[in-house]
Amino acid sequence: MERGGQSLDLMIGKSPYTAPFTRIGRVRSAGITDLRHGNVLDADWEAFDRFEHREDVRRAESLPEHVRSYAIAGTTGTGVGDLTDRTPGAGVVPVNSALGVHERSDLALRIPATRQWIGRGMNHFDLLGRPEGYGWIRDRLDASDDLPTRR
Length: 151
Fold this sequence. Notes:
The protein is mostly helical and about 150 residues long.
């Protein structure tokens, strides 16, 4: 959605008649603009205007090794590979993005498939509101008693 908002800002800004309306789009927070490329570090924006159109130049970050990570995604599609898996099918981000999968291997989160779950036929809010989504999360939390602790 952030990428779409930024594209809309670029189109609106091209005309002197609509350019003043781009200020409305700049009301979005730094947290929202970070979502354009998945930025997690302030350094990813150093020397850049966060509203400026630019390529993804963020640095790769690994998940902490001592933390067992999980990923959950929702898609309104009902089958593997549906178009909605590649678009914001759950209303927020594509499935691969939610699971930490990236076309650049250095930016992929590498969460094992056994720690990922895709809720088919559900949107973002259904992930917690439907029994199967909530159940998957609850089961992971119940199993967290055996998680390694950092000392």
